[in-house]
Specification:
- It contains 10 helices and 10 strands.
- By secondary structure, the chain is of the alpha/beta class.
- The chain starts with 12 loop residues before the first strand and ends with a helix.
């Protein structure tokens, strides 16, 4: 498992296969674009990337700024605009909120895959959806870090406390790997979890959902509610919130199902 969780810095983008702007041959498999969520970073997709590459997919793991769905979606759209050909867009956790915004109106995005993720409707926030059902123990594990920007505005970044990360975020990942994940976690702006969605791309684009039944961040009941509402094709797996790390084979298989359906 440790080999699946390489945590070296990957820069702004983790690219595999041809460069993001390379032309895709006619009839080629779609490019898979992966958007990580809060308290993670691009290497959380490494195991999934390995499997997709082995099966001939071009893959890009995008760096999520974690500042707010609208701003983060704008950053993701700039990357999508640079990808030639059809796209399967995948979001983990808060990354689901981002892909739901970024994909709206983008005809290149043929399928959405939500991995233990938010599927907000217009007017909903991640915080609201988390609290809609019991089961999240995330609030008691958070470490708030205030910050001040050069223009004088202030905000709060949220981390998961290192000593609580393994149990809260990645209980089915080896402790040594979870410790590395805790050290490299990316914080999310508190305001990002409170920002309400302005669009919901899953209303127009076919979606798939991987539901982690042992998730302590997003209650499984909330994941089921959102997936059912979106008419997503659902796969449930006994896994923690870090299902892409602990069960990369399952996640890659669902992504490939979405990719195959999008080509038919």
């Amino acid at each position: 498992m440790a080999g699946l969780v390489a945590v070296g810095a990957l820069g702004a983008l983790a690219l595999s296969g041809p460069a993001a702007g390379a032309s895709a041959p006619a009839g080629a498999k779609p490019t898979v674009v992966l958007e990580h969520g809060a308290f993670a970073e691009t290497s959380s997709w490494n195991g999934v990337i390995e499997r997709l590459r082995k099966d001939g997919y071009r893959v890009i793991a995008a760096a999520n700024p974690l500042r707010g769905p609208a701003a983060d979606a704008a950053a993701l759209r700039s990357l999508l605009d640079h990808v030639d050909g059809p796209v399967v867009l995948v979001g983990h956790s808060y990354g689901g909120s981002v892909i739901s915004t970024a994909a709206a109106g983008d005809t290149k995005v043929k399928a959405l895959v939500y991995v233990a993720a938010f599927l907000p409707d217009v007017g909903e926030s991640a915080l609201e959806l988390t609290g809609k059902f019991p089961g999240s123990t995330l609030p008691d594990t958070l470490d708030p870090v205030p910050y001040r920007l050069p223009d004088g505005t202030t905000g709060t970044d949220l981390y998961i406390k290192a000593g609580k990360y393994h149990h809260q975020f990645a209980a089915d990942v080896p402790a040594s790997a979870a410790a590395l994940m805790a050290a490299t976690q990316r914080p999310i702006a508190q305001a990002a979890l409170e920002e309400r969605a302005a669009v919901a791309a899953w209303k127009a684009i076919p979606s798939w959902a991987v539901i982690a039944t042992e998730d302590l961040n997003i209650p499984p009941a909330a994941q089921r509610f959102m997936a059912k509402r979106a008419h997503s094709r659902v796969t449930e797996v006994r896994a923690s919130h870090s299902v892409a790390v602990s069960h990369p084979d399952v996640v890659a298989r669902v992504i490939e199902q979405a990719a195959l359906r999008s080509r038919s």
